[in-house]
Amino acid sequence: MAHEALDPDFHRLIDEHAPVRQAGSGFTFTEGPIWHPVDHYLLFSDMPGDVRRRLDRSGVREVMNPSHKGNGMTYDTGLNLLVCEHATSCVARFDPDGRREVLASHFEGRELNSPNDICVKSDGSIWFTDPWYGRMAGYGVERPRELGWQGVFRLPPDHRPGNEPQLVVDRYTFTMPNGLCFSPDESLLYINDTEQANIRVYDVEGDRLSNGRVFASGIKDSLLPGVPDGMKCDAEGNVWCTAPGGLWVYSPEGRLIGKVSIPELPANLHWGGADWRTLYVCATTSVYAIDVKVGPRNEPFMRARGSQPAGPADSTAPTADETSGPLNLDANRFALIIQDMQNDVVMEGGAFAESGSPGHCREQNAIANVARLAEKCRQMGVPVIHVHFVVPPGAQGLTLNAPLFEGVIDNTALVRGTWGAAAVPGLEPKDGDHIVEKMRMSAWEGTNLETILKAEGRDMIIETGAWTNMSIEHTARTGADKGYFMVIPEDGCSTMNADWHNASINYALQNVALVTRTDDVIAALS
Q1: 512 Rama sector, left if φ>0, alpha if ψ -120 to 50, beta otherwise
Q2: Under 8 Å CB-to-CB from 79, ≥6 apart: which residues?
Q3: How far is it, in rounded angstroms, from Cα 53 to Cα 24?
Q4: Which of 28, 219, 346, 386 shows the greatest Cβ crowding within 10 Å of its Cβ?
Q5: For 150, what's the count of Cα atoms within 13 Å in the CB-facing half-sphere?
């Protein structure tokens, strides 16, 4: 089944011939897929069947029956499950132990229609739509409506269970508000309307929406079944919405750039997989999986710490400060990169010794720090990946488009099989470690690094090595763009001098990585 590219940009997001795999089938009507970022499984709703199910490597099993005809789901940063329940007309929260708590059920003293889809902003606020599908037979429990209109609501970060939600749109704007999602920077909120067959977008200003306008319209086809229902935003700001024949993908400017074909009527979608590059689609009786090239908007729960107890929303990423306590890293998600720690790069007598690199490496105590960290990672089962810059004799295949590459040739540096290309004493690869070879500054370019990370099921990276303002920074920037969470222990890195090192650490790397210290990383992996 071929997908349809209407714009060249679509090819960057998905292969036009990417297979659509049936991951599970035999259900009544699937909805609300959500991927657990720590334990790596998919939850989804079988709404009319009144069952919540889990899909993992062992197959599909029930996890809640009855489920109050749950529909849309997501997690907060504490990895509490948030569920829109049709049968109860409420938004409910389930802590990791399964304890259920009703967050919201009434507005202005009247029962909500039937919360349908839900998302969380990085400030901890919860946003949801409220059409009345759950008061229809089959999709919920047939009963009269109390509100008489369909709105979109917000629960503030300090919301207390039972308090009424905040209405964030005019109550008569939408006929059947359904899917909703934030843009990557959360400056925009997209909301679609199933009956109006359109998507509206709003500017987000704190706790309020403004400047509502139509983003896309005419999402219908007289020859194909399908309507706007579930909707998500990818890391590049493209909007993926269920539609006739499958999913329609819109650029951030509202241009329809492609269509993803799905065998059954789609209802909702979400990214998952160890690298967040598997798109799961709930479609009528089945759940489908498609490999894609782009990841999701980095939602707050995706950056949550490991399995946290229920409680208030915590930090949205692994961090350490006076409010969040010690750094906490999930060893099951991390890999360690040791980059360019080779004799020619950082040792006296090496090809680049006159640059000052050996002296700064000693000042940083980088070799000893990385060695301690590597040993800790091996103990914890964290993959250790050595990335080495290696050229063949004569440097065939190395282009001269940058002074660094010219220096490799001029100094006959980093030649395969020579002392200069070998790992520095103390950081030699050990049994079970991975070795990646490159001929570029970034560890990603022309290498099998990402293949190794996918095989190991890792989506977070601790990066060490040389040189801070070159290979380390380039690799961190690309890793962040690819959706990996990057951690830089700054005393496990070095370059030519302290000024260059500090400039990179204090500015560029602060925008793409968590910068910390080796001892803190070792303690966090305990």
Answers
A1: alpha
A2: 36, 37, 38, 96, 301, 304, 307, 308
A3: 10
A4: 346
A5: 23
